[in-house]
Design goal:
Elements (H helix, E strand, L loop, with lengths): L1 E6 L2 H16 L3 E8 L3 H7 L5 E5 L5 H19 L6 E4 L3 H10 L3 E4 L6 H10 L2 E5 L17 E4 L3 H5 L8 H5 L7 E6 L14 H10 L4 E6 L3 H9 L5 E2 L7 H7 L2 E4 L2 H10 L3 E3 L7 H8 L4 E2 L23 H9 L3
Parallel strand pairs: 1-2, 1-4, 2-3, 4-5, 5-6, 6-7, 8-9, 8-11, 9-10, 11-12, 12-13
Helix pairs in contact: 1-2, 1-13, 3-4, 4-5, 10-11
Length: 335
């Protein structure tokens, strides 16, 4: 089988890393496309995944996003036409499923947040199969034209699958000059450039100010863009560490005492790794986060003073590991 995978955001690199390995172990031929967006290219290089770069992110304005979408759709069609693909796979890349449908290629997409409405109206409708966690109620997918047998669901978090073989690398702490005697907090900035998160998060500057003045804390802030990085640095807060480049975020999370994130992936990675995690997300909470909050694995945060800034005891984490072959089999059912 010849498969085409489109990786359009940093988190997708992590999802597809074990799936690409499984496909190639089966003897399948796999070609990967990507776009220049945030740390996507850096992460592809870090994980030694070769990819053809096609297009960029459209930025904040709707007009720019629409232009970038139309441009990338044309470029992907030119790229994929005549290459003999048997199947196209994506994690939320609506450009891939739309292009695949135009070219008559079966496609499967997966995602775990059901309220990115525009993306799913485009991408899910065009896909042959849509694979989501069973924490998302079926009825929330019907408005995108997705119901069984097109809809397939899996137990748990996608992070429990792609982190199945993961073990943390402690050298990341030395790389970032983290003082191990301090409480280590990993902070992920809000997804302000995401289409589904239009309003900035006014809580976040207060959070940074609070952590940045805590002398017993080292808070590693992971920005989503150069603009965010420059803003956090301009605050000149003594307890904040802002990396210059993409880092081994999964190791950082696994070694942290707690995680505070305004976006979904790092929240769920922390939950999968058994690390205390708080969400400051300002948009509508999806089914996966609803489940994690019910189970006590994710805590909403509205006041920085509610953070429990304590060191974790060694071996305190309770990890959940799942077989990525389960995810791959669901995606391959589109062929």
């Amino acid at each position: 089988m010849k498969a085409w995978v489109d990786i359009s955001a940093p988190a997708h690199v992590l999802v597809f890393r074990p799936l690409l390995a499984l496909l190639r172990e089966r003897g399948d031929e796999v070609e990967v496309t990507t776009r220049d967006y945030a740390q996507t290219l850096e992460l592809l290089e870090r994980h030694r995944i070769d990819a053809e770069v096609i297009g960029t992110h459209g930025g904040r304005s709707r007009v720019a996003k629409a232009f970038a979408l139309a441009s990338r759709l044309r470029a992907l069609k030119r790229y994929a036409k005549g290459r003999g693909y048997d199947l196209a796979l994506a994690h939320g890349s609506h450009e891939l499923t739309i292009t695949a449908r135009r070219l008559g290629i079966p496609s499967a997409t997966t995602h775990d947040y059901e309220f990115a409405t525009l993306q799913h109206h485009l991408g899910d409708r065009a896909a042959t199969r849509v694979v989501v966690p069973d924490a998302i109620p079926e009825e929330r997918m019907t408005r995108f034209g997705v119901r069984p047998p097109k809809l397939l669901q899996y137990p748990g978090l996608k992070e429990e699958y792609y982190l199945c073989d993961f073990e943390p690398d402690r050298t990341v702490l030395d790389e970032l000059l983290v003082n191990r005697a301090r409480t280590l907090v990993v902070v992920r900035t809000p997804p302000d450039v995401s289409l589904y998160h239009r309003r900035s998060n006014p809580f976040f500057p207060r959070l940074l100010a609070y952590l940045g003045h805590e002398t017993g804390v080292h808070a590693v802030v992971l920005p989503r863009s150069a603009e965010q990085r420059d803003y956090v640095r301009s605050l000149s807060l003594p307890s904040l560490i802002i990396p210059d480049h993409a880092v081994d975020a999964q190791s950082l999370i696994a070694l942290a005492d707690l995680v505070v994130s305004a976006g979904g992936t790092m929240n769920r990675e922390a939950a999968a790794l058994g690390v205390p995690v708080y969400t400051t997300y300002g948009g509508r909470i999806g089914g996966v986060d609803e489940m994690l909050i019910r189970d006590g694995r994710l805590r909403p945060l509205t006041d920085p003073r509610a953070l429990e800034l304590e060191k974790r005891a060694p071996g305190e984490s309770e990890r959940v590991r799942r077989d990525p072959q389960i995810l791959l089999d669901l995606l391959l059912s589109a062929a």
